[in-house]
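Researcher: Here's my situation. A collaborator sent me these components and asked whether they could plausibly form a single complex. I don't have experimental data yet, so a predicted model of the whole assembly would be a useful starting point for our discussion.
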Amino acid sequence: MSSTWLAEAFAVFGKDWRSEMRARHSVATLVLFALTTLIIASLALGPIGASPGERSEVVAALLWILLLFAAAAGLPRAFVHEEESRTAAALRLAARPSAVFAGKLLWVASLLAALEAIATPLAVALFDLEVASPLGLLAALAGGGLGLAAATTVLAAIVAQGRGATTLFAALAFPLLVPLAVLAVAATRSALLGGEAGPVLLQLLLYDGSIVVAGFLLFPVIWNP
Amino acid sequence: MRKPLLLLLWLWMCGIIVAAYHWAPLAEGFKGDSSRILFFHVPVAWVSFVAFMAAGVSSLRFLAGRREARHDRSAAVAVELGLLFALLATLTGAIWARIEWGAWWNWDPRQTSIVVAMLFYAAYLALRSAIADQESRGRLSAAYATLGLVVAPFFYFILPRLAFTLHPEPVVNASGEVDVDPRMLAVLLASSAGFTVLYFWIHRLRARLAGIELRRDEGTE
């Protein structure tokens, strides 16, 4: 079978969504985690009646903490699952490493986009927020989501390869994700409150670009024993 | 390092200590002699960045070359030393913050970001110790250290500038101009150079020692 790089990448992406739809491991973990956290947070913060400005400041940080922990809980499976079910070898034969990375990245990014699409409107509703710049919020979510997806995909590949390293995922991921979290929170905050977001979004894009490029360069090394 | 060179380094560092206390003027607006910590605090912070970058470069050489174990060892030693120097920068910073700001720790953006950098490289060491197989340990930890090459500039240069900070302007500040007394600048640069050479000397010793230990362990098995 001759196939182009793009076809291989989309095949990996499609395969992951199909097997996800059959078992619903990651989606269930991510969505339930997000829902529970949001409900606990809104119970704790909502009725007390902080002023809308204060609420926006808090929720911007809360939303990204939620996404970060949801990612740490649900996403390492992206590669661990391949190793556990012994399908990694078949995947190595079926597709080029960079296509595997692209497919997995696309899958993780789409999963996070779905999670953001559920969690963000819910947060806006539960905390009764006013969004000053919907477009800015979309940009912050997209920029943050892409960086989060790229970093977790690379790290998931690393921990899946190293026997006994799976439990290290959070320890490895959080320092790497701190710049992303800080930038994404700043961008989200200025989208909610209305303010100059250009420079922060640019830095977020710089972070995303560096991690994606580093991911494509490093993945063949991580993937092939 | 040869003996005369080592002697030169020793004299150089002694000269810096003397110059820092007796030749360089005090910075204006600081309590007592507290500004003199600059001549040690900034160089060790700089060296920690150099060490983390060196770890990334060694890791790249390991991955791109023939996967020689000495490059892997060199990266691990650089990370250990980088952590040591980052710790020294944090401690000297805390001492200064106690005098000038009134508290050892203030979660100033610069204090926070160096702690995050240390967490990142501590995770590198944790990853190394978690993987038993030597081949995958070298490969995977080198990949992680290469990611460090990408994010360390964020830790050192972008994060500290995002929020309001009380930290004095870095020597090369946002406007790109050097705004320091020439004598202070001279001592600062000489000290940075001295600490950098000191770092590379310790690194060479540690890397050689690690190689010898490895051969000894292989010999006894």
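Model: Some features of this prediction you could bring to your collaborator: DSSP finds six helices and no strands in chain B. The CA atoms of residues 62 and 71 of chain B lie 5 Å apart.
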